[in-house]
């Protein structure tokens, strides 16, 4: 039985893994992918200490940092998901996607979240035929074309900024009366000559034959219907926390985020902590997640070593 089992290879989990190694906590580190959500970003400019870094490079750096410190203290299992979590006599047991089982006295859940899918007519049918959830993956395919971004948060505006490098025009639709992104980001992106922002726009249907040719939306201020003639739709409408495997062991909020004590990162269950985008903290950022992972590890160490 391990002292600690860490679930997730994003900034929160990796930071905790590095600290676990330095504190000599025998740890099993499990992740499907490294880097978290930022792997889709071409240019991250707010990772403190690094003015500019790609999401792929950040993922590689996180992995190499943990591997450099792991030694014989932290065992790493990559390319595996945790499918279930259960209570056992001396701690907890997880079952992985390969059906292997592993036990630990304590658990740190830093499993992140996944992208929310667009629930309108044609969205599923024409995914990869004009509808996409990854601008850095698919954006260059739409060079010289008119495209739309659905979503008014930081992710939506960052996607729009990426697309402006090669698209003919970018139109961002947000269903609310005000954008949720940072004001500086909003101002900078909307100032571009090929950029248009539309508020109070509720997307209703993807127009397509073999490939996307338009997007219908309703102006919620007067219920008028409109159609944008575009060939690409980039979806950035939020995230869904990866917490299904917790099986009711920890308390979740109405959005299925793990409820934690922000003072310690403790969950409602004994000897289970959580950090990062799977939790109900107010703000979700790489730097915040890394700090939360460290805070959790510090509390885990004190808890385990004082029992």
What's the gist of this structure?
By secondary structure, this protein is of the alpha/beta class. 23% of the residues lie in helices and 30% in strands.
Any overview of this molecule?
The chain has 307 residues and is of the alpha/beta class. It has two domains: 2-114 and 239-305, FAD/NAD(P)-binding domain, CATH 3.50.50; 131-235, FAD/NAD(P)-binding domain, CATH 3.50.50.60. It contains six helices and 17 strands. It has helices at 11-22, 55-70, 135-138, 154-163, 183-190, 286-305, and strands at 2-9, 27-34, 74-77, 82-88, 91-96, 101-109, 113-115, 131-132, 146-150, 169-173, 195-198, 201-208, 212-219, 224-228, 232-235, 239-241, 272-274. The strands form four sheets. Strands 1, 2, 3, 4, 5, 6 and 17 form a seven-stranded mixed sheet that branches. Strands 8-15-9-10-11 form a five-stranded parallel sheet, covered by helices on one side. Strand 1 (2-9), helix 1 and strand 2 (27-34) form a beta-alpha-beta unit. The longest helix has 20 residues, at 286-305. The protein starts with a strand and ends with a helix.
Summarize the topology.
Blueprint: E1 2-9, H1 11-22, E2 27-34, H2 55-70, E3 74-77, E4 82-88, E5 91-96, E6 101-109, E7 113-115, E8 131-132, H3 135-138, E9 146-150, H4 154-163, E10 169-173, H5 183-190, E11 195-198, E12 201-208, E13 212-219, E14 224-228, E15 232-235, E16 239-241, E17 272-274, H6 286-305
Helix pairs in contact: 1-2, 1-6
């Amino acid at each position: 039985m391990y002292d600690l089992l860490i679930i997730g290879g994003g900034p929160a989990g990796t930071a905790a893994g590095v600290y676990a190694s330095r504190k000599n906590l025998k740890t099993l580190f499990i992740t499907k992918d490294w880097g978290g959500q930022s792997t889709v970003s071409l240019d991250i400019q707010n990772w403190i200490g690094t003015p500019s870094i790609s999401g792929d490079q950040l993922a590689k750096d996180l992995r190499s940092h943990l591997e450099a410190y792991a030694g014989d203290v932290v065992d790493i299992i990559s390319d595996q998901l945790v499918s279930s979590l259960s209570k056992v006599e001396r701690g907890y047991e997880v079952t992985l996607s390969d059906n292997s089982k592993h036990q630990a006295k304590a658990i740190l859940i830093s499993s992140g979240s996944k992208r929310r899918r667009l629930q309108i007519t044609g969205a599923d049918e024409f995914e990869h035929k004009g509808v996409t959830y990854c601008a850095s993956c698919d954006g260059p395919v739409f060079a010289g074309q008119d495209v739309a971004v659905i979503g008014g948060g930081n992710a939506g505006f960052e996607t729009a900024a990426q697309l402006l490098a090669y698209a003919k025009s970018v139109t961002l639709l947000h269903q609310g009366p005000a954008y949720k992104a940072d004001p500086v980001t909003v101002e900078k992106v909307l100032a571009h000559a090929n950029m248009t922002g539309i508020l109070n726009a509720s997307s209703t249907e993807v127009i397509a034959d073999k490939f996307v040719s338009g997007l219908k939306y309703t102006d919620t201020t007067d219920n008028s219907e409109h159609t944008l003639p575009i060939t690409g739709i980039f979806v950035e409408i939020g995230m869904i926390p990866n917490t299904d495997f917790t099986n009711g062991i920890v308390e979740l909020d109405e959005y299925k985020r793990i409820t934690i004590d922000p003072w310690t990162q403790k969950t409602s269950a004994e000897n289970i902590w959580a950090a990062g985008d799977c939790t109900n903290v107010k703000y979700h950022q790489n730097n915040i997640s890394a700090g939360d992972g460290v805070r959790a590890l510090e509390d885990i160490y004190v808890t385990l070593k004082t029992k």
